C-alpha cells in the first residue's frame, strides 16, 4: 500500500451526494488534509450527503474514531471549519475495522466488504 494519501471526489448533484474516496494511509496527521477536502465538498451544495470512503485505505484507529465523531456531530473539527457548518457525513470503513460502538444517538459506520 502506498504511504501517500490520495483523495478522489465524485459528485452527484442529482442525488445530492459527494463521495470522498481516500487511498493510502489515513493517520492522525494526514486526516487534516482529508478534512480540508471534505470541507470543500460539503460547501458545494447545502444539504449534501458526504460519503467518506476509506475502505481501500489503511486507517489508524484514532483517525477512524475522529471520522466517526464527525459523523455523529454533523460537524468537521473546529480548526478546519470555524463556522461549524452542518456536515452530513457517512463513513465507509475498511472491512477489518468492524463496526464501532453504536447507540440510539449514534449511526453505525458502514463497513466495506
Question: Which helices and strands occur, and which strands form pairs?
Answer:
Blueprint: E1 6-12, E2 17-26, H1 31-42, E3 49-59, H2 61-73, E4 88-93, E5 110-111
Write up this protein:
With 113 residues, the protein is α/β, with parallel strands linked by helices. Helices cover 22% and strands 32% of the residues. The protein has helices spanning 31-42, 61-73, and strands at residues 6-12, 17-26, 49-59, 88-93, 110-111. It has a 5-stranded mixed sheet, covered by helices on one side.
Counting copies of identical and different chains, the oligomeric state is single chain
The mean pLDDT is 86
Q: Strand order, main sheet: write it out.
A: 1-2-3-4-5
- Uncertain residue ranges: 99-108
Shape: globular
Query: Helical content, roughly?
Result: 10-25%
Overall SS class: alpha/beta
Q: What Rg is obtained from the alpha carbons, in whole angstroms?
A: 13 Å
User: How can the largest sheet be summarized?
Assistant: 5 strands, mixed
N- and C-termini, Cα separation: 18 Å
Determine the strand fraction and express it as a percent band. 25-35%
Q: What's the number of extended β-strand segments?
A: 5
Number of helices: 2
Would you list the SSEs in sequence order as H and E? EEHEHEE
Q: What's this, in brief?
A:
With 113 residues, the chain is of the alpha/beta class. It is built from two helices and five strands. The chain is 22% helix and 32% strand.
List keywords for this structure.
113 residues; 5 strands; 32% strand; five-stranded mixed β-sheet; 2 helices; alpha/beta
Amino acid at each position: 500500500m502506498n504511504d501517500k494519501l490520495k483523495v478522489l471526489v465524485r459528485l452527484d448533484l442529482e442525488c445530492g451526494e459527494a463521495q470522498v474516496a481516500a487511498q493510502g494511509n489515513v493517520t492522525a496527521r494526514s486526516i487534516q488534509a482529508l478534512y480540508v477536502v471534505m470541507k470543500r465538498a460539503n460547501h458545494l451544495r447545502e444539504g449534501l450527503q458526504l460519503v467518506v470512503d476509506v475502505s481501500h485505505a489503511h486507517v489508524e484507529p484514532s483517525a477512524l474514531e475522529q471520522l466517526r465523531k464527525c459523523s455523529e456531530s454533523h460537524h468537521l473539527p473546529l480548526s478546519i471549519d470555524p463556522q461549524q457548518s452542518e456536515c452530513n457525513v457517512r463513513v465507509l470503513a475498511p472491512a477489518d475495522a468492524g463496526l464501532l460502538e453504536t447507540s440510539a444517538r449514534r449511526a453505525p459506520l458502514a463497513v466495506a466488504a
